[in-house]
Design a protein that fits this description.
With 507 residues, the protein is an alpha/beta fold. It has 2 domains: 214 residues, 3-Layer(aba) Sandwich (Rossmann fold); 213 residues, UDP-N-acetylmuramoyl-L-alanine:D-glutamate ligase. The protein is 40% helix and 16% strand. The protein starts with 5 loop residues before the first helix and ends with a strand. The model has no long low-confidence stretch (mean pLDDT 96). The chain binds ligand NAX and potassium ion. The site of ligand NAX has 26 residues, from helix 2 and helix 3. Homotetramer.
Length: 507
């Protein structure tokens, strides 16, 4: 699904109002009803639970006021606190007037903040997408007061203080929400690591915004969730043979890190590759032949690191990096690979560190090469530390545009960057996957998908990243998050890919 800027969100709201012949007040009522339904079904508060709604002067505050009315009408103990302002939006005022007189409604003042015990529920409807600058004065004090409370905090649309799609100065006042409930589409701000402590767990609520308008909007950020890739992996034709799905070459492993080669190799096989040859140093030969009998092994003549690039003629795709080490001889193997390869490449781990330490090698990257850095490796690749999360995304766009490559920036919401600068944020996966070897598994899986000629580079990257996270989610159901190890991911690659496979045969 698309990630809209605050400006496009306003356009969408207006277009929905026009296309559906409704008023903005009616759209706000839908929003409030969706919030009300979520609170009742997910939180199931007792009628006696004090629900304190903090409402700002714009439409975010209007949502809060409408919600207060719905809660009151259903018999819940709503209590409204208003942030005084010079101007109020029309829909705020309309909902202020519709609030029944029995609902306690007071203006906030520095000397008059309510007691907010642990038993209360706090609704943060101070500011949403209309926020144009960091919060100061009374608004900042209210935010600090909410954050000090032990009560559950639910943010409407955005945690107040957070800008939807732009950075704010460090230490700006921000509500620390346990839940953020937004409308129809998530926001880019939710997906950035620096915001996790403020956004909490986020959910999208449907309010009937015009799908046709969303469909026609041009954006450069997407969110990849459950349904997006279903059916994208072509079904295997009955008359396929192992050549149909490509022969991959994996260059991996060094003394003490042969396990990385084993994990990437098994993941590649589970990813559906036709044939796999693994190049390891001598130290890895017996290990690989024993641990991964399905793979062929082509050992390097050196005992503990890779020093020679094999003839690339037989291969449909080449992966390099897991457990490689950063010796000069391995760097020369990488250089030769970049100079001679005519098939898709997947580069990870020490292959990326070697690129970062020898940045002139980046000029040799063949078009459509797939790189899979985590943020620290990415920083080494670009050579300049990111000032903030948005700056890192701009660096990512600039990097893929300059090098005409695909880059998978690994994080809680991994971003797949395409050469045109479009970013696709991945929604599958869980914190249990933050474990050694998880990245090696991704490399192997991506290598398999890049060897499959039926898939475009973009589809291979998106399918691989999503299936990797989905394998993690399936594995965690069995092992729990803490108990999850990288080989569990490998076991669940098959089921994850199965979910994404088309039911009808491809041509
Ligand atoms: N437009 C629509 O049709 C819909 C809007 N919805 C709600 O409307 C929200 C957006 O409403 P608005 O555009 O009115 O914006 P907000 O309610 O986020 O805030 C705008 C108000 O805050 C003031 N303001 C901005 N920055 C400030 C600062 N740093 N300190 C103090 N005041 C500041 C502005 O002058 C304005 O009065 C969404 O987040 C969502 O909650 C929903 O009701 C769904 C439908
Ligand atoms: K809010």
């Amino acid at each position: 699904m698309k990630l809209l800027s605050a400006a496009l969100t306003r356009t969408l709201d207006q277009a929905t109002i026009q296309a559906q012949g409704i008023t903005s007040l009616e759209l706000m009522e839908r929003a409030a009803t969706a919030l009300f339904d979520w609170i009742l079904t997910e939180l199931r508060p007792a009628y006696s639970t004090p629900i304190h709604l903090f409402c700002g002067p714009g439409n975010n505050g209007g949502d809060g006021l409408a919600l207060a009315r719905l809660l009151h009408e259903a018999g819940y103990a709503a209590h409204v606190w208003l942030l005084p302002a010079k101007r109020y939006s029309a829909d705020f005022t309309a909902n202020r007037l519709r609030l029944p007189a029995e609902v306690p409604c007071q203006e906030l003042a520095a000397a008059r903040f309510p007691e907010l015990p642990a038993s209360a529920v706090l609704i943060d409807a101070l500011f949403g997408t209309g926020l144009s600058r960091p919060l100061t004065d009374l608004a900042a004090e209210v935010v600090a007061h909410l954050n000090r409370s032990p009560a559950l905090r639910i943010a409407v649309d955005l945690p107040s203080g957070l800008l939807a799609d732009a950075p704010q100065p460090p230490d700006s006042p921000l509500v620390q929400a346990h839940y953020t409930l937004c409308f129809e589409l998530p926001k880019l701000a939710f997906l950035l690591p620096g915001h996790a402590a403020f956004v909490g767990e986020w959910h999208t609520l449907q309010i009937g915004l015009e799908q046709e308008v969303i469909h026609n909007m041009a954006v450069d950020n997407y969110f990849i969730e459950d349904n997006y890739l279903k059916g994208c992996l072509p079904k295997r034709p009955r008359f396929s043979h192992k050549g149909t799905f490509g022969h991959a070459l994996l260059l991996a492993g060094s003394q003490g890190k042969v396990g990385a080669a084993v994990l990437a190799a098994t993941a590649c096989l589970r990813g559906g590759v036709g044939l796999l040859t693994v190049r390891v140093p001598q130290v890895g030969y017996a290990i690989l032949q024993t641990a991964v009998p399905e793979a062929m092994c082509l050992p390097d003549s050196a005992p503990d690191i890779l020093t020679e690039l094999p003839d690339l003629t037989p291969y449909a795709a080449v992966g390099m990096g897991p457990g490689l080490g950063q010796q000069a001889a391995s760097r020369e193997v990488l250089r030769q690979l970049l100079q001679t390869a005519t098939v898709p490449l997947v580069l990870d781990a020490d292959a990326l560190n070697l690129l970062g330490a020898n940045r002139e090698l980046l000029e040799l990257l063949p078009p459509d090469t797939l790189l899979t850095p985590h943020p620290k490796e990415f920083e080494r690749l670009v050579g300049i530390p990111a000032r903030h999360d948005y700056h890192r995304l701009e660096q990512l766009r600039a990097f893929v545009r300059q090098h005409r490559c695909y880059c998978v920036l690994k994080d809680a919401y991994t971003a797949v960057a395409a050469p045109d600068g479009t970013l696709y944020f991945n929604g599958s996966g869980n914190p249990g996957m933050a474990t050694g070897g998880s990245g090696d598994v991704l490399t192997g899986l991506l290598l398999a998908l890049r060897a499959d000629k039926r898939l475009s580079a973009l589809d291979a990257a998106l399918l691989g990243v999503y299936a990797h996270g989905r394998a993690g989610d399936l594995a965690a159901q069995e092992t729990g998050e803490a108990g999850l190890i990288a080989s569990d991911l490998v076991r669940f690659i098959g089921p994850a890919l199965q979910e994404l496979t088309a039911s009808a045969p491809g041509l």
